[in-house]
Amino acid sequence: MQEELLNSVIKLTKTRDVNSLEYSLVTTLHEFIQCKEIAVYKDMQDSGQRIIERSLVLHFSDEKRYHWEDNCFIEEPEPELISCLQSACIITVQSSDGIEQRWLPISIFDKPIVAIKLVTKPLNSSQQVLLNAFCRIYENYLTILNENERDKLTGLLNRQTFESRFKQLLEKQVMSKKVIAKDKNARKRHPESCSWLAMVDIDHFKLVNDSYGHVCGDEVLLILAQQMRSFFRASDLIFRFGGEEFVLIFEPCLQEDIKEKMTTFMDHIRSITFPFVEQLTVSVGMAKISPYDFPISVLENADKALYYAKNNGRDQMHFFDDLLNEGLLNNQEPEADDDNVDLF
Predict the structure, then answer these.
(1) Sequence-distant (≥ 6) Cβ neighbours of residue 327 within 8 angstroms
(2) What is d(CA 47, CA 137) in angstroms, rounded to the nearest whole number?
């Protein structure tokens, strides 16, 4: 038993990303506590609004038959789940047939952000000890992974996490394409929709640092990051790539929809008052993400569209495919920021 426990802890802490850690936790819990269901819920708070994502769920009909369910957002969370996240306390409810539903909170820096749900027969004391111990190990390791995946200044995802998140998105997109291909009604509901990558760059950011110092520059970056978090959906991935450059990945939608969304975002940023800066603008390069693309290829496409925007006046957005079709990408070279331009 002790050897099995040690091997399970080793397996749990061997993972290097949050999604793999979730899978390890769920399989480990079922190994020691026979469950009818294990689910992981995330509190994706967005501008004060609680948005619950069920990121992982495993159902068991018996010891040999089980199935996983895809992640989804929960429109009407169970009151016990909300209570667990609000109080950071374990919530247990037993039905008339003796089956227990148990919610366990997982916190980072004393803030509950995850709830683990188990549907089981009543647990004995040793099972409860094991369950709580594995949840605490998961909590501690999740804190470490979260710190490693996040940019220290803005709290956004960092560049090192981009490739793994991109890969997960493509895997999901390939599965979705297979489902749509088999379903004629699904093809009608999703005409020509695809995922999109946006590369966002602050215009003339060097002037902010040179004129007012890096403390002011950091404040501008922090406010912009906060605005992006509040403006876009909780399911959209936002990365800080370094300096004044950000990358966003959006779930499948039509080009006109993402264009409208990004245009509204750019208008919103123009309306924000930043420290010492009367008006801040951003340039945006957009690239389509196809199911079998390499991350570097999509980044390069968005980067070319971004530099076209910066070379042709800044404060604008361009799509790589549109520029390519119009023959506008020949001999495009990055233009250096002009320190002599008076913006503020």
Answers:
(1) none
(2) 30
Average pLDDT of the chain is 86
Could you tell me the residue ranges of all domains in the chain?
A: 2-149, 157-325
Name the token pair of 30: 């079922």
**CA-based diameter of the chain, in Å?**
76
Question: What is the β-pairing status of strands 72-74 and 66-69?
Answer: unpaired
Burial degree of 52 (CB within 10 A; 0-12, 13-18, 19+): buried
Distance CA 306, CA 320 (A): 9
Torsion of CA 42, 112, 265, 241, to 10 degrees: -90
Q: pLDDT tens digits for 293-319?
A: 889 999 999 999 999 999 999 999 999
Q: How far apart are CA 186 and CA 47, in angstroms?
A: 32
| CATH T-level fold of 2-149 | Beta-Lactamase (3.30.450)
Q: Token pair for residue 167?
A: 């890969």
Q: Which residues fall within 8 angstroms of residue 177, CB to CB, at 6 or more apart?
A: 291
What is 157-325's CATH number? 3.30.70.270
Q: Is the CB of residue 228 less than 8 Å from the CB of residue 332?
A: no
Helix (H) or strand (E) holding 30: helix 18-32
Phi, psi of 57, rounded to the nearest 5 degrees: -150, 135
**C-alpha span between 84 and 73 (Å, rounded):** 17
Phi and psi for 40 in degrees, rounded to 5? -120, 125
Whether residue 187 has pLDDT greater than 60: no
Query: What residue type is assigned to position 219 of the chain?
Result: E
